[in-house]
Amino acid sequence: MHTRERIEGCLNTVGILIDPTSDDVNLNDYDVDSISFISFIVEVEKEFDIEIPDGYLYVEILQSLNGFVNLVEQLVDKRNKSNVTSVF
Q: Which pLDDT score, from 0 to 100, does residue 48 have?
């Protein structure tokens, strides 16, 4: 499953249903309250085994679904690179 599909699954888990056929989605259009937002972040962190830095934990920063997908992919790549170097 691709990163975007996994993130959409995290959104669905916390009750945020988005249009999967859209090329990009503005997450601010979905009236996400603070509890749903934090629940979504926790779901993503568990799903991808990452920690999203505090500087990104603002609804206003995470507007674009595609931008959020890119952020998650960068954090996963960073985690994978640190896991490879820690083996040696």
A: 97
**Which residues lie closer than 8 Å to 49 by C-beta, 6 or more apart?**
79
- Asked whether 27 and 68 are in contact (CB, 8 A), the reply is yes
Q: Which of these, 65, 61, 82, lies nearest to 24 by C-alpha position? A: 65
Q: How far apart are CA 21 and CA 84, in angstroms?
A: 36
The 10 Å Cβ neighbour count of residue 14 is 17
Length of the chain in terms of residues written: 88
Which of 72, 68, 31 has the alpha carbon at shortest distance from 49?
72
Which has the closest alpha carbon to 14: 54, 51, 42?
42
> How far is the C-alpha of 78 from the C-alpha of 64, rounded, in Å?
21
> Could you read off the pLDDT of 19-48 as tens digits, one per residue?
878 889 888 888 888 898 899 999 999 999
3-state secondary structure of 14: coil
